[in-house]
Write a structure and sequence with these properties.
54% of the residues lie in helices and 10% in strands. It is α+β, with helices and mostly antiparallel strands. Keywords: Cytoplasmic vesicle, Golgi apparatus, Membrane, Protein transport, Transport.
Length: 792
């Protein structure tokens, strides 16, 4: 058999391998030699063979066959073999393997060994891979070693006790008395381990936390000694005396002083001393100062001390190290709500961090800048944020735009400023804004009636300049459709007016409709705006009709449906087009359809103190005839509310077919009363009282003639104190020979319980002739709910 090569020689040969295959061949030969050495028994070469196997393991090759050899070497009386055996156990074994249980007895024996170096091997192994069973068995031995005379053993026993507490928390009480006495040690290693052990105990047991709060003065004295001590080469790091121990003590003080005034008062002077005397030019000093800041912010510290902590973080923002700037802004983000004024002093430095090259630093600076926006600095901060929006990375644009919108909504000094800010964002990053931005801006514009002329002029200029930003184009199309007449007048005090012709406006909207950059939603806005302009301009109605008709065969179904409906409005319902395309009323954010997904808002009742425009899209007569219905109650003092009937898709249903579905059920019919009989048209009414103040009225129309009745519509008016809501009718065509009916439901709410009156206007077309009649219902008896009526 060839003699085994030494470890250094094996490493040299493996490193000289030119290919991975050559390396695997060398490893296989060496592993075969190692197995042979293990099988030969005690020949003095086992420790060298295991050392080579550990190097093979470090290279990622299998080394599990050396586990039992580790157990044998640990049991060896030779220190050199024990050292390699324990090292192998820490690398090749873990707590989940059965072989780890075989070394428990060896570790227990070595913990009582006369040599402190053998004891340290056993302590390191137990702290590294000790299982819960091993920790339970060996915990008394560790507690005994905490009282050993050698500081070398105490240090390792302390760290081993930390591992035991993490594995078996119920053993924490065993180490509490010893941990308290370790604070009197002078050795920094033992003291460091003691602070770590006490921190672990306090985090896991509230009772222990109360007990160790009595040690705060002692910890303060230790910390003061470190801060004021003279230069010590053994513990000095970049001019800071043992910064590792200082950081550990500060963390422990933070835990002990949390929500405790007595402990916090005892450490306030110390924290002020550390914050003022520690040099922050070195990384070690910055680490100590950072832990000091965290401790100040977490305990019940004085206000002056908190301001000092914020100033330290402000100095960190000027550091050349990006990591320090990042953690500084992270800490400021946590305290900006509680110490807003103190953080505001460093607003300029924080804004400068928006120009940093590192994206993570920019993100933190953006979050902190948005948190610093207030009513006082809204203009200056928004200017900086808008500049940042124009140059920020693409991954930050959406967050920046959302933050600007939220800040502008909360702190905007005026509506004009608010509109200008949002338009600036849409111009810069319109593709990165949220979906609800468009309806929110439209709602804002509708409420600012004095700015309609200014807004439509500004949006028109933005539209003809760039149509790539879809959100901006949608808002611009909506405003042009609503306020195009103001644009044509060319009179605007807030902005330099521009002379715009009807052809210019239509050319701009046609450009949007035909652009490949326009989304289907944007084309829908543009088509609707074009249609609305048909009532706001005079010379180009035929051109609008031509534009709309083109999209009647559009491949996009939404756009096609709009075009078909608008064409029908031109052809069949031209008399009501002006009323249908009136300006939209002021929209409320809490109104239905404008909740942006938030259904918690209250729905406001309509203001009945002011006259409101009638939604003529629901009427069958020109808007000028709306007041005629109200005038019919000449001798009535109580004013009426007019409620037009909503439109619906014409459908004809048969009540008989629906009743047939109920089979043999016995249904109590609701009484019906005829209120209108003329020209073959019969109108009946059903009344159902829902509550003390609410009544549901169903109007049923049937046709006994030989021809279908078309364009059938109903209008209703009630006294002003009564709230009326008309549901959509089941259709507008009544089949001949009584083969079908058209029904419409009316909801009445009578909170004042006044005498109910209703006036109904019936309009329909029969054989090409238009008919219109009015019926007045004078009373609604509360008992039988059967009305009395008189035709007018």
């Amino acid at each position: 058999m060839t003699p085994s090569v030494r470890l250094q020689e094996m490493i040299r040969v493996i490193r000289s391998a030119r290919t991975q295959g050559e390396e695997r061949g060398i490893i296989q030969r060496e592993c075969a030699d190692i197995r042979s050495q293990f099988r030969q028994g005690d020949n003095g070469e086992r420790s060298h063979s295991l050392a080579k196997l550990l190097y093979v393991h470090m290279l990622g090759y299998p080394a599990h066959f050396g586990q039992m050899e580790c157990v044998r070497l640990i049991a060896s009386p030779r220190y050199s073999e024990k050292r390699i055996g324990y090292l192998g156990a820490m690398m090749l074994l873990d707590e989940n393997q059965d072989a780890s249980l075989l070394i428990t007895n060896s570790i227990k024996n070595d913990l009582s060994h006369s040599s402190q170096y053998v004891q340290s091997l056993a302590l390191c192994t137990l702290a590294c891979m000790g299982s819960a069973e091993m920790c339970r068995d060996l915990a008394p031995e560790i507690e005994r070693l905490l009282r050993a005379s050698h500081s070398y053993i105490k240090k390792k026993a302390t760290l081993c006790a930390v591992h035991i507490i993490r594995k078996v928390p119920e053993l924490a009480e065993l180490f509490t008395p010893s941990a308290r006495t370790l604070l009197s040690e002078k050795n920094h290693g033992v003291l460091h381990g003691a602070v770590v052990l006490i921190t672990e105990l306090c985090e896991r047991n509230p009772d222990t936390l109360v007990q160790f709060r009595k040690a705060v003065p002692e910890l303060v004295q230790i910390m003061k000694g470190l801060v004021t001590s003279s230069y010590s080469p053994e513990h000095n790091v970049a001019g800071i005396s043992d910064p590792f121990l200082q950081v550990r003590i500060l963390r422990l003080l933070r835990i002990l002083g949390h929500n405790n005034d007595t402990a916090s008062d005892a450490m306030n002077d110390l924290l002020a001393q550390v914050a003022t005397n520690t040099d922050s030019s070195k990384t070690a000093g910055s680490a100590v100062l950072y832990e000091t800041v965290l401790t100040i912010m977490d305990i019940n510290s004085e206000s002056g001390l908190r301001v000092l902590a914020v100033n330290i973080l402000g100095r960190f923002l000027l550091n050349n190290d990006r990591n320090i700037r990042y953690i500084s802004m992270t800490s400021l983000q946590k305290i900006v709500q509680t110490d807003h004024n103190a953080v505001q002093r460093h607003r300029g430095t924080i804004v400068d961090c928006l120009k940093d090259q590192d994206t993570s630093v920019k993100r933190r600076a953006l979050e902190l800048s948005l948190a610093l926006v207030s009513a006082v600095n809204i203009r200056s901060m928004m200017k900086e944020l808008l500049i940042f929006l124009s140059v920020c990375p693409p991954e930050l644009r959406s967050q920046t735009a959302s933050g600007i919108f939220n800040a502008a909504e909360r702190y905007s000094p005026s509506k004009r400023w608010h509109i200008d800010t949002i338009l600036h964002v849409l111009t810069t990053a319109g593709g990165d804004v949220r979906d609800e931005t468009v309806p929110n801006l439209i709602q804002l514009i509708t409420t600012a009636s004095e700015l309609h002329c200014y807004t439509v002029h500004k949006l028109y200029r933005a539209l003809i300049k760039d149509i790539a930003q879809q959100s901006l184009v949608q808002v611009a199309c909506w405003c042009i459709g609503e306020y195009g007449d103001l644009l044509l007048k060319g009179e605007c005090e807030e902005i330099e007016p521009v002379q715009v012709t009807e052809d210019d406006i239509l050319d701009a909207l046609e450009t949007v409709l035909q652009s490949h950059m326009s989304s289907p939603a944007t084309r829908g806005f543009a088509l609707t705006a074009t249609m609305k302009l048909s009532t706001r301009i005079t010379d180009n109605v035929d051109r609008i009709r031509s534009i709309v008709s083109i999209y009647g065969s559009c491949i996009d179904l939404e756009l096609q449906q709009r075009a078909v409906e608008y064409n029908a409005l031109f052809k069949k319902y031209d008399h009501m087009r002006a009323a249908v395309l009136e300006r939209m009323p002021v929209m409320d954010k809490n109104s239905p359809g404008h909740t942006n997904g938030d259904t918690s808002g209250e729905i406001k009742e309509p203001d009945t103190s002011k006259p409101k425009p009638v939604e003529a899209g629901l009427l069958s007569e020109p808007a000028s005839q709306v007041c005629d219905l109200l005038d019919l109650l000449g001798g009535t003092d109580t004013p009426l509310q007019l409620s037009p009937a909503p439109t619906s898709t014409p459908t004809t249903t048969s009540s008989a077919d629906l009743l047939d579905l109920l089979g043999g059920l016995e249904i109590t019919p609701v009484p019906t009363v005829s209120v209108y009989e003329k020209n073959g048209l019969s109108l009946k009414i059903q009344c159902d009282k829902q509550t003390e103040t609410e009544v549901t009225v169903t109007l049923i129309a049937s046709n006994s003639t030989q021809n279908d009745i078309t364009n059938f519509t109903l209008q209703a008016a009630v006294p002003k104190s009564v709230q009326l809501q008309m549901k959509a009718p089941s259709g507008n065509v009544i089949p001949a020979h009584g083969l079908g009916q058209v029904t419409q439901t009316v909801l009445l709410n009578n909170p004042n319980k006044v005498s109910l009156k209703m006036r109904i206007r019936v309009a329909y077309s029969n054989q090409g002739a238009m008919h219109q009649d009015t019926v007045q219902i004078d009373s609604f008896p509360s008992a039988a709910c059967q009305p009395s009526f008189s035709p007018l």
